[in-house]
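Minutes, project check-in
Item: structure for the 207-residue chain
Input as provided by the requester:
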Amino acid sequence: MQRILAAVLAVMLSATAHADEAAAARLNVVLTGLASMQADFSQTTRDSRGQLLQGQGGRMSVKRPGLFRWEVATPSVQVVTTNGSVLWIYDPDLKQVTKQKLDSQVGNTPALLLSGDPRKLADAFDITEEKAGRNEQVFLLRPRANDALFDHLRVRFAKGQLQQMQLADSLGQNTDIRFSKIKVNPALASSLFDFTPPKGVDVIDEI
């Protein structure tokens, strides 16, 4: 995993540390106001040369604490959902569902940003704030864990609403997720995040 950590003088190190703390605090303020969210998403993944590898679209729902549902509608259907303790990954085309324990690894994924405790973000990520347009905020997050699933994550907010997430991994692949038809703090039933395997599908239990 790449880490961009550079400092020459102790003064610069101190200033950087203060800037990171301030950025983390500002991100915490934005996310604390996001108790729940629903939106459509479009997602593209490109390789290190910029060639398109995959495109997806669908609907996402999150609710704090710990509830997350990601429904891919195109080009094929997939559902990833968690009720805070169990993670389900359902592939209708394969007639297969995988059941996993929601462990600490999720703390190294964007799921923590959207459905976790904002106060714990600074424990999991190095956070900096980048220059942005008017009424926008852009934050760059780098996982502290060596086994994280991505190298860095960039998130963009406009007037407090999450608009875009960009992920890059150590192989140079980049994923761009853009949100539309955004609903902030809608009333979401907790049952939305439960999952019961349909009859006739293979259940792979990894718990």
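Outcome recorded: The domain at 10-205 is CATH 2.50.20.10 (outer membrane lipoprotein receptor (LolB), chain A).
No further action items on this chain.
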